[in-house]
Amino acid sequence: MDIVVRPTAQAAARAAADKVAEQVADAVARRGQATIAFSGGTTPRLMFGRLATLRLPWQQVHIFQVDERAVPAADPARNWDQLRELTDLVPATNQHPMPVESAHADTEYVHELDVTMGTPPVFDVVHLGLGDDGHTASLAPGEPILDVDYTDVGWVETYRGHRRLSLTIPALSRARAQVWLVYGAEKSEVVADLIDGRTPTPAARVLNRPVASVYLDVAAAPSMSVT
Ligand code: 6PG
């Protein structure tokens, strides 16, 4: 597992974007396409901005979601809308928003994953954030979805005000690369738990160390030196 600590959130986001870009370019070179799933929240906005400036074979990139809130399309809580500066770069056929308006969104999205990547679907990259309670994606402490090992997509009943659709632990753990981006002092405890691994937070259960790169600012990793 690579742990990269940068002096600022901006520098951490830039390094994470560059890692995503490296993985995307490698995937297209090897397999003719790249598949990436992005998380939502506020943290990744800096990374999206940097990534959108990079010269990549965007025509061969497929953009998926790690999770989405079941709210109307125009609702600012939707994660998909935050990805616009990236989704505008790929063909419409390569844009894969979670169809949260549908009652069968879970099975529909499983099908979309399988059609694009085969079965079981293996993402080239999954981008992951970290919540202050140790959640990642919409996999929150105590949620039944944490024990779902038979499918790649599942519903989460109301968590922090929203019903959500989320990739499951198997789908996230199976990815060829996990790129974690976390910054801010308020995350320092959960970051320590993630790295230490002895506390079975949802994020620690998703973490697949051989393929994980964790990008942090010094505020989120006060006991670690800048790398
Ligand atoms: C979501 C995200 C979620 C996020 C963490 C961190 O839909 O909320 O997918 O898993 O990554 O909650 O959120 P912040 O970046 O806002 O701290």
SSE string: EHEHEEHHEEEHEHHE
What's the number of helices? 7
* Straight-line N-to-C gap: 14 Å
Q: Bound compounds, please?
A: 6-phosphogluconic acid
Please give the domain count. 1
CATH class: Alpha Beta
The assigned structural class equals alpha/beta
Low-confidence stretches: none
Bin the strand percentage.
15-25%
Number of strands: 9
Using the 3D structure, state the CATH architecture. Answer: 3-Layer(aba) Sandwich
Please characterize this protein's 3D structure.
- With 227 residues, the chain is α/β, with parallel strands linked by helices.
- The strands form 2 sheets. It has a 6-stranded parallel β-sheet, covered by helices on one side. A 3-stranded antiparallel β-sheet has the order 4-7-6.
- Helices cover 29% and strands 20% of the residues.
- It has 7 helices and 9 strands, in the order E-H-E-H-E-E-H-H-E-E-E-H-E-H-H-E.
- The protein has a single domain (2-217), classed as Rossmann fold.
- The protein binds 6-phosphogluconic acid.
